[in-house]
Amino acid sequence: MQGGSSGIVYGGLKYQARCITDVRADAGSTTFLAGTLSLKEENEVHLIRLLPGENELVCDGLFYHPNEIWDLKSCPFDHRLFSTVYTSGEGYGASVWKIPELYGQSNSPQLEQLFTLDDHTDKIRCVLWWPLGKHDKLISIDDRNIFLWNIDPSNKSAKVISQGSADMLPNLRGGAWDPHNHNAVATITDSSLHFWDLRSMKRSNAIEHAHIQDVDYNPKKQNIIATAEDEFGIRLWDLRMLKHPLKDLPGHSHWTWAVRHNPEYDELILSAGTDSAVNLWLAKVGTDDSGPESPSGSPTRQEEPLLHSYTDYEDSIYGIAWSSHDPSLFASLSYDGRVVLESVKPHLQRK
Amino acid sequence: MTTTVGAAPTAMDEKARRTRDLLASFYNTDPAAAGAVAASPARPSPTAATASPLESINSTSFNPDVYMDVLVQQSNLEALLQRHVKMAAEIKNLDTDLQMLVYENYNKFISATDTIKRMKTNIAGMETNMEQLLSKITSVQSRSDTVNTSLFNKRENIEKLHRTRNLLRKVQFIYDLPTRLNKCIKAGAYADAVRFFTGAKPIFEAYGDTSFQDCKKASEEAMDLVIQQLQAKLYTDSEPIEARAEAVVLLKQLNFPIENGCIVHLCLFDIVGSADLKIGSGCDLFGAQVDNLKSNLLEKLEDCLLNLQTEPMQASVGDISKTFRAYLIIFPDSESRLIELAHALFTNRYETVRGALKERIPSTDLLAMLRGLWEDATAIDEVISEAALPAFSLETTRDIIKQHIATAFLHLQTEISDVLVTHSTSNEKLEESQLQTAMEKSKIKVSQGCIDLLQEFRHLIDGNTELLVKLKDLIIDWVQEGFQDFFQKLDGHFHLLSGRSTGFSQESSTVDFVQIDKVPTVLVLMLAQLCVFIEQTTIPKVTEDLADSFSGGGARSSEYGPPFVPGEICRLYRSSGEKFLQHYVNIKTQKISKLLNKRFSTPVWLKFAHVCVLYIQPKQHKEPREVNMFVDLLLLEFNGVVSEVKQILPGLIRRHRHSDSTGSTTSSRSNPMREDMLNRSNTNRSRSQFLENHLAKLFEQKMEIFTKLEYTQESVISTVLKLCLKSLQEFVRLQTFNRSGFQQIQLDMEFLKSSLKEFIDDEAAISFLLKEVNNAAHERCLDPIPLEAPILDKLINAKLAKIKEQSANM
C-alpha cells in the first residue's frame, strides 16, 4: 500500500508491461493475468490473485514467456488457458498457452504451448476469444487480415476456418467480439472502425474518420458500443445509427488508450489513458436521454459523467481489466509494471 | 351479564359492538360471509368439511356424524381434547350471546309500548282545537265578501271616467297636429314631424272622413311640405352626408312612394364616391328592393377597402370612418358586417407591416407605421366601438414588435457569423496581421451590434404614444429575453461553426459531419477568443445599458426571475471559450500526431529526397547522417500554430520571430548555450539506463505536463508542444529500433531541443519530455549505443547551416 492511494498495489512485475486480463473462467476468486514487455530481458506472465478477506494481491504463478507480450487474453471457459501475441525483434507470433498444474511450487514452471496461430503473413495485433463462454472459435487479427480459427485445446490443434482481408484499409490494430452475436466482430484501424460478419468474412458497416484506439461492446445491451478516440475521447454508439454517437465523454488529457464496460453495471465505463490516469465514467444510454442534449443546452445543466479519476500512477496506462468475480473491482497496469487494484464501491453510491 | 362494574363503559361499547355483529351475522348483511356460507354446502365432501369445520357447522347440511367420524379419524387424543375444550367454550359463548339477544329484544319491546302510550294521551285534546279554528276562518270569509260587493259600483265608475279622459286627450292631439307640424317645419326638426305624423296616421285612416277631415287635410299639407324639404335636402350636395342619410331614412319612414331606390342609390353613390370609388354600372342593378341594394353596396364597400390597402394613403381613414357612419345610419342592422370589414382591413394592413419586417427595417420606421395604424384604429373605433379595434391592434402590435425584436437579434447573429466565416476562410494565406484585423473586426461587430440594437430598441420605448406606453413593460421584457436568447443562440451557433456540435445535434445532419475536416482551425481559436471577449466586455456593457434604459419591466410573473441573467450567460461563454480553446489544441495536436504517426508507419523514407535511414533495418548499422525531415515538418506546424496564436490570443510581448531569420538567430545566439545543453544531455544519457530507479523524480516532473489551459499565447503554445512530444513518446514506445534508429531519434530530439527554445518559455518541461522520448527509444532499442557528442554537434550545426542557406535563397 502506498500513501494516498486507496488501491492495492502489486509490484511484482519487474519490467514494463502493457497487458492485463481478467481470468473470467476462474469463478472462485478475483484473478488477473499480466504479461511484461521487455526487449532485452526474459519476459514473464504473472497470475495475480486477490486473497479473499485480505487486502493483498499475491502472485499465484510466475511463468517465463519467451518473447515480449503485446496482447494477452484469458480463455473465458478454461482458467488455465490464455493467448498471447508477441514479437521478438522482427519476428512475431501468437500462441495459446496452458498453465501447468501447480504442485506446491509456484516458481517458474514451464508454460505448455498448446498451439501457435502461425498462418499469419503480417504482424499479428491481437487474439479474441468469444467473451461470454464456451465457444470453439478464436479470432486473430493482423495488419491486413482477420482469421477465424477452430480450436481444440484437448488435441492441441487449431485450424483456420476462414479469412477476411482488409484490402485497402490502413493497418488493423485490434478489435472486439460482440458478446451478443457469435458472428459479429468490430475491428479498428488508424482511421476507422469496421464491423465484420464472420459467416461471410465481409465488412458490413463502419464508423469513418475516427482515430480509434480501443473498442468495447456493452455486455448487457445489444448494439451499444464504446470507442476510445484520440480526438473525441470516449464515444458511445448505437450500431443501428452510426452517423452520430449516442454520447460523448471527454476522455483524457492525452490519448485515451483503453475503454471497458463494467461486466455487471453496464453504465459504468472505465478508461485508461497515456496521461497516467484511469477515469471512471457513468454513462447512461437510453433512448430517453439522448434527445435533450442539444448544442444550445447549457453544459452546466448536464450531469457530470466523470465519477472519479484515479491519478496515482507514474506512467501511461495501457491495461485495465474489470474483475468478473467481483464487478466492483478493477485492475490497472501502468507501463512501469505496477498493477493497482481499485474498488469502485465508494463511487457507486452516487448513482 | 358477564360485565364487571369497574370496566363498565368499555364493556358497554364492547357489548354493543358484539350485539351488532351477532345481529349482522344472523341476518347475513355481510355479503362475503353470506357467500362463504352459501359456498360451503355446495361441496359437502369430507375434505371441505375438515378444511373449514366452523363454517360447515353453521351450514344447513351439516352432518354431525360425519363430522365426528372425520374428527375422530384425523385427530389424536390431544387434538380431540383440545377440540373438546374449544367447542365447550364456543357453546358457552353462544349461550351467552343468545341470552343477551333475548334481553335486548325485550328491552326494545318495553320502550316501544311506552312510546305508543304517550302518543295516545297527546292526541286526545287536538280535535276540539281544530273545530274552533274552522269556525273562525268561515266568519272571516263572509265579512270580506260583503266589503267587496259594497265597493264594486264605485270602482266601475272610476274606470269609465279614466277611459273618457284618455280619448279626449287623443282628440286634442289630432286637432293640434297641423299647428305642431308647422312648428316643427319652422324649427327644421323634420324627424320630430315625421314621428308625430306617423303616430297619428292610423287615426286619420280610420276616422278621416268624419269630423277630423279638416285636421287631416292640414296635416297632410304640412307633411307634403316636409317631404319637399327633405327631398331638397337630399339633393343638395352641400349638406353633410349624415344629414342626407337622415333625410333618406325619414323619407323611407314616410313610405315616400316611387324613386326611393334611386334616391338611396344617389345618396350612396355620393358617399362611396367620396372614398374615391366608382361603382359604375352597378347602379342599374339597384331596384326598389332595399335588401338587395344593401348587400350589393356592402360588396362594393369591401372592394373599396381592399383597393385601399393596395394604395394605402389615397383615401384617408377619416373618409372611411365617415362612410361607415353614414352606412350605419342608413342600415342600422348591418353593423356586424361592418365589423368584419373593419377587421379585415386592419388585419390586412398589419400583414403588410409584417411583410416589411422580414427585411430589417429601422425601429423608427416601424414605429411610424404602427403609430399610423393605431391612430386609424382609434378613429374607426369612434364609429363602431363594438369592433374592439384598439384591443385588436394592440395585440397585433405586440406581436409585431416581438417579431421585430426577434428579427433584429437574428440579423445580428447572422452578421457576426458572416464576419467570422468570411475572414477566417477567405484568407487561405494567413498573412501577418490579417488575422489580427479579422479578430478585431469580429469583436467590434459583436459589441457595436449589441449597442446598435439597444439604440434601436430604445426608440421603441421612448415614444410617448398611448400604444407604446401600454406596451412598455412588455417590450422591456422582450428585449431582456431577446438578449438572453440571443447570447445562447450565438453560443450554439459558435459550436456549430466550430464543428464540435456535430456530436450532439441530430438535426444538424451529415453535412456538418463531412465538413468537420474543413473547419479552419483559426476559426476555432477566434471563437475561443471571441467568447472571452463577449464574456468580459460585451456582456457587462449590455448589462449596464439594459439597466440604464430597460430596467423595470416585470410584466411577466416574478417566479421566472429576471429574463436576462448575465451570470448565466457569462458562465456559458466561459465554458464555451474553454471548450473552443481545448478544441483548438486538440485539432492541432491531432494534426501533428498524424504527422508523427506517418513518420513511424511509413517505412519507405527513400521516396523522400534526402532521408535514407530506415529505422527498422537489422544488420545495417549506419549512423544517421542528418536530422530527419519530419522534424522540419514538425517545426513548420509549430510555426503555424505560433503565428495563429500570436495574432489572436493576448500574451506578453515577445520578440518577433521572422521566418527568414530562423537559422541565423538560432545559431548565433544559442551556440554556447546549446553546448551546455549537450553536456547535460550526455550526462542524462548515461543516467537514463537507471530510469527505473528514478521514477520518483520523474513523477514529480510529470505532473507539469498536463497543466490547465489558459488564454495566453504561452499556455496554448506550450500545451500543444507538450501534447505533441508526449504523443511522440507514445509512438516511440510502440516501435522497436536498431542502433541507427535510436541514434536518429537521439539526433532529432537534440535538434528539437535547440529549435523549440524559440517557441517556448517552459524549457524544463520540454527538455524533460524530449528526454523522455529519448529514454523511450533507448528502452525500445536492442542495441542502444548513443551517438558521440561531437558527431551530434556536427550534424546539428550542419542542419542549422542548411536552414540558414535555404532561407537566404528564399
Automatic annotation (TrEMBL), chain A:
Q: Which domain of life is it from?
A: Eukaryota
Give the source species: Triticum turgidum subsp. durum (Durum wheat)
- A family per Pfam: WD40
Renumbered residue ranges of the record's region Disordered: 285-306
Q: Which UniProt keywords apply?
A: Repeat, WD repeat
Protein family according to the UniProt entry: Belongs to the WD repeat EIPR1 family.
Q: Which SMART domains match?
A: WD40
Q: Which InterPro entries match?
A: Beta-prop_EIPR1-like, EIPR1, WD40/YVTN_repeat-like_dom_sf, WD40_repeat_dom_sf, WD40_rpt
Cite the repeat ranges for WD.
Answer: 249-281
Q: Which residues form the EIPR1-like beta-propeller domain?
A: 5-281
Low complexity compositional bias: what residue ranges? 288-300
The yes or no answer to whether the keyword RNA-binding is present is no
Q: GO BP, one example?
A: protein ubiquitination
Per its record, how is this protein called by name?
A: EIPR1-like beta-propeller domain-containing protein
Automatic annotation (TrEMBL), chain B:
Q: Where is this region: Disordered?
A: 656-683
Entry keyword set: Coiled coil, Golgi apparatus, Lipid transport, Protein transport, Transport
**Protein name (database record):** Vacuolar protein sorting-associated protein 51 homolog
Q: What residue ranges carry the coiled-coil annotation?
A: 77-143
Say which domain of life the source belongs to.
Eukaryota
Keyword Manganese listed? The answer is no
Native source species: Triticum turgidum subsp. durum
Q: Name one GO biological process term.
A: endocytic recycling
Q: Where is the composition biased (Low complexity)?
A: 661-670
One GO cellular component term of this record is: EARP complex
